[in-house]
Design goal:
The protein is of the alpha+beta class. It has 5 helices and 10 strands, in the order E-E-E-H-E-E-E-H-E-E-E-E-H-H-H.
Amino acid sequence: MKLLKKGAEADIYLTKWNDSRVILKIRKAKKYRNPILDEKIRKQRTIRESQTISEVKSFGIPTPLVYYVDLKKSSIIMQEIPGSPVHDLPDSKIIKVSKEIGKLVGVMHKNGIMHGDLTTSNFILYKNKVYVIDFGLSQKTIKSEDHAVDLRLIKEILNSAHAKIMESAWKNFLSGYKSVVGSTNYAKIIHLVSVIESRGRYATVV
């Protein structure tokens, strides 16, 4: 078993299950929380994540297959997508796939799912198909404000991790997103992204 990522919420491992390479995600106990409450929260989030992965797949979004959910250990065994995270692709390729990422996010939002952690590391390009991973912070919501929070995060990621190509990638992302959610919803959500940005820009620490 190989540790791939230590996160605040969970640890991600590459391991074997039924002779296949799989991803094992284990939600960690939080020592600062009441143990009974902690177990309940981890169990609920594990159920929600596994259900969301399967649900978005029904919308036509490529996601890993969920093989096994262990509620006692708050863990999920899922398919390994052996491609490259979009974060690690050459700049020209990131610009190109940004339109497809925009479409995928649009489909999620149109169907009332907020991903909650839209980073370029949570999209994997495998066999010319973009897969969406890590639904640990996802939630069901049709609120435009929540969808705007999703967009604001990926815009920040493009600005910080891919600054050289930010404008081109963001333009392509928005083009793909708008083609799915439609002009009216698009205008509303983009306005809310600006509102969120202005709050951050003028916020003062008291």
